Amino acid sequence: PYEVLVVGGGPAGASAAIYAARKGIRTGVVAERFGGQVMDTVGIENFISVPYTEGPKLVASLEQHVKEYEVDVITEQSAAKLSKGELIEVELASGATLKSRSVILATGARWREMNVPGEQEYRGKGVAYCPHCDGPLFKGKRVAVIGGGNSGIEAAIDLAGIVKDVTVLEFSDTLRADDVLVKKAESLANVTIIKQAMTTEVLGDGNKVIGLQYKDRRTDETHVLDLAGIFVQIGLVPNSEWLKDSLELTERGEIVIDGHGSTSMPGVFAAGDVTNTPYKQIIISMGSGATAALGAFDHLIRN
Ligand code: FAD
Questions:
Q1: How far apart are CA 123 and CA 198, in angstroms?
Q2: Which of the listed residues 27, 139, 207, 272 has the most CB atoms within 10 Å of its CB?
Q3: Quick check: 62 and 20 in contact, CB under 8 A?
Q4: 251, 125 in Cβ contact below 8 A?
Q5: Going by DSSP bridges, is the β-strand pair 71-75/229-232 parallel, antiparallel, or unpaired?
Q6: Ligand 1, atom 12: nearest CA belongs to which residue?
């Protein structure tokens, strides 16, 4: 068995594996795809001390750093069940079972997509999911935010300080965001909120986004907005479906952790975007991976 088994090979998992291996304990990583969401990222400008890098390049460095240590890295395997006997067991979709004295869950999350024509084609070319990451790329330009929940309205307020103007498109007839955020957004001269708007297509010129088309659900009329960027803010879904019977999750499915990264199952820790940490970023997930590994080590020396 492993002393520490990390499930997930994104920045949180890689960081947890390095911190665990540096304690000289038997460490394994099992992941569907090494690198996680970072593999899908084009430019990264907020990984502190590295002014600019690109997703695949950062993933290559992560992998190289992990390989400096004796870590068993198993990829293209998906964890399907977590249970506890004498040891903690992670059952894979392939049917195999991995056993460990402690487990760190770092399975990340995925942005909910609009599923409209043009979205995939222009992903990273104007279609964005993270205002903290990509907001500055649209300085002085027109953008839309899709979704009028807390993350959408927060994004609109955030972007309004950088871009020329922001149009928020909300599908229903009410905004689900907190009142204080809605009031703030409505007070900004360069923010427009359109309700009952269903985005139907991302428009581009072959290289980048030039606008979007939406349908007014009241009148069925189609409208076009000229834009440089579209921030999709309709939800970040944690990859925790397989854990709902074994761990305490929030109502959104995030794994509940404490300051040591401990979950509701003794010996099981979690880190990164799959947890209830409020902000989801590379640098934050790496920090939480380190915390979870130190938490796991602390658990091992006490048990
Ligand atoms: P993830 O990166 O999601 O990694 C999860 C890992 O778990 C993967 O290896 C995956 O294969 C694996 N996995 C999932 N389920 C299972 C399972 N059941 N069994 C086994 N393995 C599993 N953040 C920034 O700080 N700066 C940016 O510029 C930036 N840009 C972004 C751009 C895009 C397009 C996206 C999508 C995200 C961006 N982010 C950015 C956010 C950042 O990528 C995430 O916060 C970060 O990757 C989270 O790390 P993680 O390790 O928690 O999860």
A1: 19
A2: 272
A3: no
A4: no
A5: unpaired
A6: 8
What angle separates helix 179-187 from helix 150-160, to the nearest 10 degrees? 30
State residue 42's pLDDT score.
83
User: Does the C-beta of 152 come closer than 6 Å to ligand 1?
Assistant: no
Nearest to 62 by CA among 282, 275, 240: 282
According to DSSP, the β-strands at 43-44 and 97-105 are unpaired
Q: Which of 37, 46, 276 to mutate to test the pocket of ligand 1 (most atoms within 8 A of CB)?
A: 37
Q: Give the burial string for 174-195 (b: 16+ CB within 10 Å, else e).
A: ebebeeebbebbeeeeebbbeb
pLDDT tens for 230-275 read: 999 999 999 999 999 999 999 999 999 999 999 999 999 999 999 9
Give the distance (Å) from ligand 1 centre to CA of residue 27: 21
> Model-level pTM?
0.92
Whether 282 is in the pocket of ligand 1, judged by its Cβ within 6 Å, is yes
CA 102 to chain CA centroid, nearest Å: 24
Q: How far apart are the C-alpha atoms of 281 and 296, rounded to whole Å?
A: 22
| CA 297 vs CA 6, 292, 301: distances in Å | 13, 9, 6
The closest of 248, 294, 293 to 275, measured between CA atoms, is 248
63: tokens are: 């992998």
Cα gap 214→198, rounded to integer Å: 5
Phi/psi-derived region of residue 235, left when phi > 0, alpha when psi is between -120 and 50, beta in every other case? left
